[in-house]
Amino acid sequence: MEAAPERPESDGSLVARFQGGDESAFDELVVRHRQTVYRLAYRLMGSHEDADDLSQEAFMKAYRGLRGFRGEAAFRTWVTRIVVNLALNARQARRAAVPLEAAADLRSEATGTEATLRSQVKGAVGDLPPRQRQVLRLKVYGGLKFSEIARAAGMSVGTAKATFFQAVRNLRVRLAGPPARTGRARGSGHDRL
Predict the structure, then answer these.
(1) Which tens digits make up the pLDDT trace of 34-72?
(2) DSSP 47-113
(3) Which of 94, 159, 186, 192 is the Cys-Cys partner for 155 at CB 3.0 to 4.6 Å?
(4) 99-177 in CATH: which number?
(5) For the chain, which residues make up each domain, given as ranges?
(6) Regarding the domain delimited by 10-97, which CATH topology (the fold level of the hierarchy) does it fall under?
């Protein structure tokens, strides 16, 4: 009779082992989740170097905080929240550090319809309120379920869904542009600006 294949240990069990003093349990968690963490970091940051740095920072932060982890959310959700928060902080710091002239130069370098569209979408996403931007990125770039987004963002599932659909609606409005003018201004014969 053949022995049944061994099931992989659950994340919860690995967390408990780590909290009990088994450092190797954390290594197993990293191996299990490093691709997911990296992919999300890459989607949020846009470059390999930034995603690699952010992934390492996220796991270091998880390591430092795991002893106090209470298991109110799954480990994956918890580490996802760490990645999102680190990415938001890094992007805010980066925006503050880029002079306006450099930002204008970067915009003028983009050419072609695809680059223009990509830039418009990126700008429209960046203009969303922070909560909508976070939920949209977790859903679209992170591929998370609404229940995972809710736990990662600290909100109810209903709020996560509503926030996502508000973000999509706001993107449609922003990408559609201003409504076309249909007539001339009265009295001048010229369109008003």
Answers:
(1) 999 999 888 888 889 989 999 999 999 999 999 998 888
(2) SHHHHHHHHHHHHHHHHHHGGG---SS-HHHHHHHHHHHHHHHHHHHHHHHS-HHHHHHHHHH--HH
(3) 159
(4) 1.10.10.10
(5) 10-97, 99-177
(6) Rna Polymerase Sigma Factor; Chain: A (1.10.1740)
